[in-house]
Every structure is written in C-alpha cells, then in structure tokens.
Design brief:
By secondary structure, this protein is mostly helical. It is about 85% helix and about 0% strand. Helix 1 packs across helix 2 and helix 1 packs across helix 4. The longest helix has about 50 residues.
C-alpha cells in the first residue's frame, strides 16, 4: 500500500515538476497536500449525503421496531411474548455487548494506525525513491544488480502509468454515470 501511495505521489510530483520547475521534494509534498486536500474536499462535499442516508436508515429501523411492536401486541400471543421479554435481564445483553464494542473500537484504532503508517511510509518513499531502491539493491548479489535495477525502474514506470490510467477511467466513469443519472432525472446525480 505504501508503495502504491509512493507511486501515485511520484506520478503527481512528476506532473507538477513539468508545470513548475521546483525541487522534487517540494513537488512530492505539494502532491501529498493536493491528494489529501481533494480527499478532504470529497468528504466535505459528500459527507452530508452519507450522514443523511445513515439518519434515514436509523429512522426506518425505529419505525420498523415500532411497527413490529404494534403487530406483536395485536396478536393473541403478543402480550405473553412481550411480558416474557420485559422480564429478560438487561445485564446479560450488556455483558455480551461490551466485548463486541471494545473489539470494534480496537479494530478501528488499529486500522487508523495502519493507515497513518502507510501514509508516512508512502511519503518517505516518494521523497527519496532512489535511496530506498539502492538500499534494496545492496541485498542483491553484485552479478544481478543491473538486471534487478532495470526491472525496478521499469516496474516503477509501469506502475505510475497504470495508476494514471485508473484515475482517467474513474473520472470518465464518474462523469458518464453523473450524466446518465442527470438525463434520467434522478436528483443529486452530480453530487
């Protein structure tokens, strides 16, 4: 993951260096700021829609629970079932809920930590790719270093081009889907 991030930052940095003749380390940092700025912008633009959908789902869940209670009370066996459910011990449910909740929170923290490590490693790899490539080549026997170095150089170029092609495809797909949804008259097609 860090290598993919480094390749994306390097490709963006190469593009920025063609536009503005500044050192590569600065363009890598500008590329990182641009990438995370776009991500923050997307979250700012579309986060409200996701939140609204989440609130809609919660509202439907509450309505469904209410409808289930109304239906259960209307049945001949409903009162007996609800009386038995009211007698259930809440502590039994919370005893099993606490470990699950702890696991979810711990998992989220672990993945946030992994994400931060990937971001930091990706930026460092993109800042000095030759240093890390040369360090890896030290592990290769002298007789094979030239071939491995050529392979790594070609692989980096191919990976950058592949990432750029994926970006172009994603943008084209997003534009075409937005146009299609707008033509069909679906509200919020552009957002």
């Amino acid at each position: 993951s860090a290598i993919l991030l480094a390749a994306a930052l390097s490709a963006m940095s190469d593009g920025l260096r063609k536009l503005v003749p500044i050192p590569s380390q600065i363009t890598v940092l500008l590329a990182a700021l641009l990438m995370f700025g776009v991500l923050a912008g997307v979250i700012a633009l579309f986060g409200w829609r996701i939140l609204a959908q989440y609130e809609e789902i919660l509202g439907k869940a509450r309505d469904s629970v209410h409808a289930l209670l109304v239906y259960t009370r209307a049945q001949p066996w409903g009162d007996a079932l609800l009386k038995q459910a009211n007698g259930a011990r809440i502590s039994d449910a919370t005893d099993t809920l606490a470990p699950i909740l702890g696991s979810v929170v711990g998992g989220a923290a672990r993945y946030l930590t992994y994400g931060a490590i990937v971001i930091v490693c990706g930026i460092f790899l993109a800042l000095h790719p030759a240093r890390y490539r040369d360090g890896a080549l030290i592990l290769i026997p002298q007789s094979h270093r030239k071939e491995v170095s050529d392979f790594l150089t070609r692989s980096a170029m191919i990976l950058k081009r592949w990432l750029i092609s994926r970006l172009i495809v994603m943008i084209a797909l997003g534009v075409l889907v937005s146009i299609g949804l707008a033509v069909l008259g679906i509200s919020g097609a552009i957002t």
